[in-house]
Amino acid sequence: MALGYRTATGTLVGLKSIQVDIGMDGADPHVALSGTRSAERMAGRAVRAAQQAFEFPTPEAARKLAAERGSGTLRKTLKKKQFSAFQDEESGLLRVLYREIVIRFTP
Fold it and tell me: Of the candidates 99, 105, 86, which has an alpha carbon nearest to the alpha carbon of residue 45?
């Protein structure tokens, strides 16, 4: 089964799944992408998108949270902020998804 989405004009856009590994590097959140040749260099973009759109903790916020409430709280927060990443097969653009799914069907 192909993974992708259909645009408003009816064009089918294929997506390639990118493995997202979220963990901690000391007191800082760490994100690693793998699965494509360019995934490693896209990790920074994925993190910035997650920080802006999904309230993924910045290193400063993570350190503050760990200092105030302990590293266990930070680990729980990171588990709640899991996101998925996909690469547009045609354009190579990075698509980052979090807690959202769109299902379209014809009755």
Answer: 86
pLDDT digits (tens, 9 = 90+) for 1-58: 468 888 889 888 898 888 899 888 877 888 889 877 777 788 888 888 888 888 888 8
3-state secondary structure of 74: helix
Backbone CA torsion sign across 59, 65, 70, 71: negative
SS3 9: coil
Please name which of 20, 18, 22 lies closest in space to residue 36, comparing C-alpha atoms.
18
Domain extents in the chain: 4-97
Q: What angle do CA 103, 106, 107 make, to 5 degrees?
A: 115
The residue whose two tokens read 């973009």 is 45
